[in-house]
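Lest this sound abstract, we think one record worth quoting, the chain in one-letter code, the fold tokenised, each line plainly labelled:

>
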Amino acid sequence: MRFVILMGLLSLFGQVNADPQADHERAREARLRDEIRPIAEILHHIGEQIPGQVIGLELEREKRTGQPVWIYEIKILTPDGRRLEIEVDARDGHILELEDDD
């Protein structure tokens, strides 16, 4: 589980933007302002609902219903080999969208 979380964090900071330091700071500041939940908590919550291995993770700021919202985009490889893309509200861990990439 620690490996999965570590890989998720590395992906998070490497894919959000071209500047990893700015990405790290944006995510840290959002966490300090309580705008997002810790990624370990989100991954634990999602893992209880959807079994599989995290193969990708991004933190994005999107407009939804006219308001900017932090979204974790999590890619999971399920035990039966399917690839899922899950969009999660980073504030509360609620699944917003689940797509089968196959």
Q: What stands out?
A: Residues 3-7, 12-17 have pLDDT under 50 and may be disordered. The helical segments are 2-15, 20-32, 39-49. The CA atoms of residues 21 and 95 lie 28 Å apart. The chain has one domain: 2-100.
